[in-house]
Write a structure and sequence with these properties.
Number of domains: 2
Number of strands: 17
CATH class of the largest domain: Alpha Beta
Structural class: alpha/beta
Distance between the termini: 22 Å
Order of helices and strands: EHEHEHEHEHEHEEEHEHEHEHEEEHEEH
Number of helices: 12
């Protein structure tokens, strides 16, 4: 069997780094095809791949690979040209794009969506959502620091003293916790809020203050996503957030409800009360955003506040993002490929949950 690694379109990441390929060949017993230039976005030349794989053009890869792996799905046009025996592994996001299941089934293709892997202890080593969220949380703080007009840490100098920046993190899942840890390392004063009571201890262990709002609907089995809350709770939450936001230099929002529009945590009236020069980084931008005025992959100004919308900040750190993604991917492929052939563990919950063309 041949596994194909394509060059991503409009994304600097690649599904696997060159250093992982020997493990792939040894553990799966496969040949590897790599599209020319696949690693260029992560500063990885073809020479590094050529030692363990065959470098081919995209047309040849799509025609010959029995299993194609990618960070982002192929186009509809490319799906239509594939052999019906082709197996696809990517991030299809069927909860946001429900039509994708039917399209792939019509073409007779077999597809697995990595974002549908259960977020359980057994599947941790395959959890690309957590891997990418961790990088996004880290990157969000760096982006905020670049756009803030002042220091993060406290400074005491002969020319005067500078107070530390105040950072408010909304959502203490994987991305939020990494944002908290990074902001603390940079010397900021950090507060964090999450509807899950279990997050309090994690937040406090990182040196941040946990903001509590009574009456939250807790769902620890939501797989790292937020859950829908009552309107009464949302009103109390907005009031508390508004109070904290008016004093914050930076707000980082991470709350998403799987398959639904992201909850609005920072409405217009809250932004109006924020200090000019403050920065908001909204990691829920692709599903509507936690902040009023958020536009995905755009930076806008409102009332002196900089609002940065980007749900895929991990793509800005392509080498390490590709490293983690590839490791997750290999662990998943071990459930699908045995001794060089496609032999999925059909009774395995991880396999059945992620297969979107069953």
């Amino acid at each position: 069997m041949k596994i194909g690694i394509i060059k991503e379109q409009n994304d600097r990441r690649v599904a696997m780094l060159p250093g992982l390929l020997p493990k792939v060949k040894e553990q799966l017993g496969v040949e590897i095809l790599v599209e020319k230039g696949a690693g260029s976005g992560a500063s990885l030349p073809d020479d590094l791949y050529a030692e363990h794989a065959t470098i081919v053009d995209r047309k040849k890869l799509l025609a010959e690979a029995g299993l194609i792996v990618s960070v982002n799905p192929l186009s509809d046009e490319e799906h239509a040209k594939l052999s019906k025996e082709t197996v696809l592994v990517s991030r299809y996001e069927p909860y946001n794009r429900p039509e994708v299941n039917g399209k792939l089934k019509e073409l007779g293709l077999t597809a697995y969506s990595l974002d549908m892997i259960p977020r359980t202890t057994l599947a941790q080593a395959m959890d690309v959502l957590s891997s990418m969220a961790s990088i996004a949380g880290y990157r969000a703080v760096l982006v905020a620091a670049e756009n803030l007009t002042r220091y993060f840490p406290m400074m005491i100098t002969a020319a005067g003293s500078i107070r530390p920046a105040r950072v408010l993190v909304l959502g203490a899942g994987v991305a939020g916790l990494q944002a908290i840890a990074t902001a603390r390392r940079l010397g900021a004063m950090v507060e964090a809020f999450d509807t899950r009571a279990a997050a309090k201890e994690e937040v406090q262990s990182l040196g941040a203050k946990f903001v509590e709002v009574a009456g939250a609907r807790d769902d620890t089995s939501a797989g790292g996503y937020a859950v829908e809350q009552s309107e009464e709770f949302l009103q109390r939450q907005r009031a508390e957030v508004q109070e904290r936001a008016s004093k914050a230099d930076v707000i980082i929002t991470t709350a998403q409800v799987r398959g639904r529009k992201a909850p609005l945590l920072v409405p217009e009236e809250t932004i109006e009360k924020m200090k000019p020069g403050a920065v908001i980084v909204d990691l829920a931008a692709s599903s509507g955003g936690n902040c009023a005025f958020t536009q995905d992959r755009q930076t806008i100004q409102h009332n002196g506040v900089t609002i940065i919308g980007d749900s895929d900040l991990s793509a800005d750190m392509p080498e390490d993002a590709s490293l983690l993604f590839g490791n997750n991917l290999l662990n998943f492929l071990k459930l699908l490929v045995k001794e060089g052939a496609y032999q999925p563990e059909s009774e395995n919950e991880i396999v059945t949950s992620s297969m979107i063309t069953a």
